# Entry
Amino acid sequence: MIRLLPIDAASYVPSNRRGNDPVWVETNCYVDLWIELLHSLGLDYHPALAFTLSVDFEGDQWQFFKFPSEDLRSLYGLEVAEMNPWRGLEHHVQEQLEMGRLLTAEVDAFFLPDTAGISHQIAHVKTTIVPNMLDRADRRLGYFHNSRYYELEGDDYAGIFGHDRDASRLLPYVELIKLDGVRRVDGGELLEPALALVREYMSRRPATNPVQRFAKRLEQDVDWLRAAGLETFHEYAFATVRQFGSAAELSGSLCEWLAGHGEPTADAGAEWIALAGEAKAALFQLARLMRADRVLDLDALLGPMQRRWDIAMEMLVDQYA
# Structure
């Protein structure tokens, strides 16, 4: 049995994201995963959230945002790069754990027991995990997924590693995480590098209000969304409102962290957090409207969010753009 980080599922204490009372319990599988991984490595994830300031609406969906590997390198000394799992995922997990390294791996949530009632033994859904413990003899795996650390065993172990799968199937996307140069410094030392990233991503912020552009697209999509049914709406909402709302909350968390280190960002942080809450309320309202034959008042639904995005962004433009 190989275990890299000295943790186990029964006693794992997750990160204290927004006091354990976030607006959005989940963002996306990659960002939540990295928040927990950084936490388990003894690293504060807040300085690395500047990338959320450039998250944009891409015309048919919001950007599926991720921690950029170059930011993880510059802030923490972590090296993250794609690798080729040519000998099979199970083999490479073992070898890299033995070398003191971690992997991110795309797997099928059908075999993840932490998704019980959603995907486990129900639906084949792509997601990302980071294995930390491997016991090949007893077929057990300890892994980070979303915002916690879990273990699986038995048939789920065989399924995750494709023991019964056709060898000709496509290899999963895997990243190697090298911990050799990891740097653990306090928040004060990370302030200037974090501000440099804030200025960089502010220079790459959306050129126009993304909520306004989304409102125009949603107006076009309402009829087919209603006809497609609630399951399709949930997928649509994940790709749009949830990504936007959770990114706004992380921008707020960044501003709160900066304010705690003397930066004038507390008011901007409050605006971003409020925007995250409005996005969540909008999601529930949209879900109800999908079931009803009523005219969708987009100005009432999204207008306040458009104006708040302008306010929150302008506060940061004055300081950092």
Notes: DSSP finds nine helices and seven strands in the chain.
